Amino acid sequence: RHHITPQRNFGTMSAATAETMDIVSPTIVAAAGCATVVMASALAYVMMKSKDRKKEEEEVVGESSGSDSTGETLDATKFPGGYVTVLFGSQTGTAESFVEEIEREGEDNGFKVRVIDLEDLGDNMTSLLAEEYRDSENKSRAIFLMSTYGEGEPTDNASAFVRALKEKAGLDGNIIDDDSAGEEKKGDEDATEVDSNLLGGLEYAVFGLGNRQYEHFNAMGKLVDSALSKVGAERIIELGIGDDDNDLEGDFENWKDNIFWPSLKERYIGGNATAEEKKDSAELKLPDCHFAVEYLPKSDESVEVDNISLDEVQTSTKHYFTSVDCPVTVTRELRSADTGSTLHMEIDISKSKDVINYQTADNLGVLPVNDDKVIEAVANALSYDLDAVFRIKAAPGKEGKHSVPFPTPCTVRECLSRYCDLTIAPRRSDLKQLAAYAKDPLDRSALLRMASKEGKAEYHEKIIDAHVGIGDIVSKLCRSIEAPLEHFIGLCPRLHPRYYTISSSSSQHPDSIHITVSILKEELGSGSVYTGVCSNHLAGIIQNGKIRVFCRDSTFRLPSDTSRPIIMVGPGTGVAPMRALLQERSYQRIQQKLSVGENVLYFGCKNRNQDYIYEDEMESFKNEGTLNTLRIAFSRETEKKVYVQHLLADNAEETWKMVDEQKASVYVCGGVRMGADVTDTLKKIVSNKGQVSLDEAKVYVEKMAKEGRYVQELWA
User: Which of the chain's ends, N or C, has fewer CB atoms near its CB within 10 Å?
Assistant: First the structure.
């Protein structure tokens, strides 16, 4: 489902060009032409305010995200289990959406759920022991939903918490091996002394979200589960594991329904008290709504958004407030006709350098725009006025930190264009919520059937495999759905950015960012066309048309000692950051007159006459002496398919000498399976040429990674 982010919102949000979170309906995406709000003043304000953020203990304890946070005496008939605190580490909102499910089900199971964003907790872990949330035995309960991001990294909002927890637990690194979970990393002479009673009195459970395709599968879930036990907390449920390579939602649902709630009820409610019985209703109750909409008078003038602090913004949507509009000055096709499309694009950042500063091969976040036809179909189906202007705010009783999802006031068109993911396939839990808005019993029954455990096969056939999005459901399949705008905003997933590894050097191109975009467009068996919402939006940008972007650090960094060699492995669009690194090495060698080490590139594609992208530039780098060795695997030109890992193995002696004697850095970008094959090949080279065991070779490669000498940015 998600081509750039390893472990979905829990993996490396990088990669050169592939589409991120693109489960889309059969429509061609073009520039939406929506009424763009005036964001400049708001952007300056939120950036200023974000620098002044404070994380005081009373804020963490007393201001949970959308939950009751007063610590008052609870009604024992409604909440016989008392308080349970649920915390999440989430990058694009998946873990956060799972937390919302737990919050919605809390009262029915007898618990008062309060939700805390781990960004608010930070290093203030002892606030979890706040007296007002303890039970009669003076215990506190905390449930952690942890997504893994990048190559075993914490999500942005969980980074401070994970850093502090590792320090207190005496752990070095993020990786807990399955066969040695709970043991400190060996060989760390500077390890901090373990604070074994820091969280004494805290009872906890962890559910981890990951993708088994990646080497460090569910690293954050495993790390937090192990580390909490080292600092005095008591594990009450074994670690739950969710695998996005298979059925993440099913894994979570099974854990939640069959392990989590039954365990909590048995432990904290037992036979002594039962939650107040819920009366059945002939009609489904509308889901609880966190938002309220205030409609404003229409105006011919541009609408200026409210100035708000980033503290008030939802963690997973802060990019809506910090991105800027920049013109696309160059677009050119890199592939031959009739073999797909890969575009080279150049974005002018000269007027936005106060906001966008990039380093060579950083990541560029691009905010997609939905297709006009999809927007209009949804608006017609739900009777929305696309030109209506509104302000969104927290619903009564839902006030708190991180309550604002996107900049307003804005038009309904802007909202549906930029902030609602109308084409992503809804989760089964989303279908259950949608059913509450269906007026036709047949529509309601169909949605509930596919939302059920028994309907998983039908759901996969009719929703996942057919690439049906929420927009299709409300406008085509279940036309009886009626949802007020604030409810639709609450149940529709946010439209998240797609990340592209920048393919330019900031030294050679300080005012321009280059990206390499693979246009996702496939014919389905039904005859319809499956398109990527972001890549096709970019493909439709006209000369000097603007796209909304922001920049983020990547892990690709050249060695500080320029005389050291580098080995680059980048098949397909994975060559994008290698192009940037070669530009930078060329600048160092020619412009700065520095001593630059050898540069070796392994590139792969199907056919030299179809998808050998940047061929002219690679030849130019060779001719000027920057690219010393270029090895290309044309996988469809030989009887036996040859890939980059095969070429690397063929040059084992050279690779070992560069890596071991000359301390070369190795950079890999592309698909996750290719990345795993390259890693295995490198381990075998180290084992064979270094005359060590494969286990010792694994340690050798891990040490390279820790030193920043083995860097991978991969996508699924």
Answer: N
